Amino acid sequence: MRRIAIVGSGVAGLLAAHGLRRAGYDVTLYSDRTPEQWLHESTPTGTAARFDMALEYERQLGLNHWEKQAPEGRGVHLTFCPTAGNRLLTLTGRFDRYFQAVDLRLQSHRWMRDLEAQGGRLVIEKIGVERLDAIAADHELTIVAAGRADLAGLFERDAARSRYTQPQRHLAMLIVRGAPLAFDGVPLLSVKFNFFATMGEAFWVPYYHRDHGPAWNLLFEARPGGPFDRFQGARSGEEVVTIAKQVIREHIPWDWPWARDMELADPRGWLLGRITPTVRHPVGRLPSGRIVTPLGDTAMSLDPVAGQGANSGSKMARNLVESVIAHGDRPFDAAWMQATFEKFYRRHGRAIYRFSHMLLEPITPAAREFLIAQYGSDGTGDNAQQRLANDFVLNFNDPAYLTPVLDDLDAARRHITRATGRSWFHAALTGRLAIARRQLRQKLGLAPLHPAAATQA
């Protein structure tokens, strides 16, 4: 039985551990905290909303313990504001199957216990480079799924694939209860995505909390120095909630009635930070010359704006498990590590990385045309606009589906024509006229009354 070590007890590391153990490998998982410490003494490292492709892998591994209890997110409701206060357009698209976001503390706690029950070994130890070298000596393959700090430095930045050298947003995450589990005028439980071209992004994700069950996970993505960039000096979760309410009331007033009564779900339910999106080379060399391979955020760090972190980690773990099985008894050398990552990057990674960056940057002409053509979607029916909105939302599940279209104006126009059954020009004209009517209402001091608007005031 081949011996495999995994360092890290987040989503990607545990999915790989379970997948390999079920395939009959001797698996040892190294974690810097016990399951109980994960549950009671940790801060969630992100929202970790997972779409259907990721959830399906959890189902296959028997890890979907909260599927019947967690809120079932059915769509995305996006409001796009080119300037502060100007709600130019909305999109309300629905998924074929629901997404869910479950408290990482619950998952890591339960999945670590499950791994032990299935014959995997669990070692509680903080791992440094010297200790990792010793672990690699005792195992045929060592996988590092330890996040973006410390051990990630073993893996050289891939300059050809890494677009940025510094964070693009200052981040604030908080888990709240007390807000309604619905939005006025939106017919399905959705991610509420407020997109400001000049200030950043703010989105609210239906969430399953450790203690309170259905709740919300809020993420603010502030452009450095902009009006959203108020959180970085906060010292407590209560202070973060207070700032969040100020930002919503001042800049997202259409969501203020929804947010007015929200409160922090637990003392550790908040997080501040910043991430430099980075792709790393998949072979790390230790002082002895032994090699290890990265997984999840250690291999590819993403800004959370597109909700791809946990989904990318899941797809990467599945690819790695399949590649281990297919490799048979041959050694896990550097060529295998490179080929395994390249397989993931071709199928998933390139599109995931580009889609995430697309939402951080000025909107492309193709994406603008697409959003205009879909205008009028309200999450119901099966009209031309709704089909386009649904296509946009399905891209969160599999960014390879639509990201190339959103990067190419001619491809976007062909897609619009094919999906709507009418010329792209007709769809674009119809969308522009409808948007112009809403713009006129705002100039007259009235609410725009978008389809499926969050407020009809």
Summarize the structure in words:
With 457 residues, the chain is an alpha/beta fold. Helix content is 38%, strand content 21%. The chain contains 14 helices and 17 strands. The chain has helices at residues 11-22, 35-41, 52-60, 104-117, 129-138, 237-251, 256-259, 309-327, 334-358, 365-373, 384-397, 403-406, 409-420, 424-443, and strands at residues 3-7, 26-31, 49-50, 73-81, 89-101, 121-124, 141-144, 170-177, 190-196, 200-209, 213-222, 263-264, 270-273, 278-279, 284-285, 291-294, 300-301. The strands form three sheets. Strands 3, 4, 5, 8, 9, 10, 11, 12 and 13 form a nine-stranded mixed β-sheet that branches. Strands 6-2-1-7-16-15 form a six-stranded mixed β-sheet, with helices on both faces. A two-stranded antiparallel sheet has the order 14-17. Helix 1 links the parallel strand 1 and strand 2 (26-31). Helix 8 (309-327) runs antiparallel to helix 9. It is globular. 52% of the residues are buried. The mean pLDDT is 95.
The backbone outline, from C-alpha atoms, is: globular
Biggest sheet descriptor: 9 strands, mixed
What is the share of helical residues?
25-40%
Quickly give the structural class. Answer: alpha/beta
Give average pLDDT, whole number.
Answer: 95
Poorly predicted runs of 5 or more residues: none
Please compute the radius of gyration using only Cα atoms.
22 Å
The total count of helices amounts to 14
- Termini separation comes to 65 Å
Number of strands: 17
Range of strand content: 15-25%
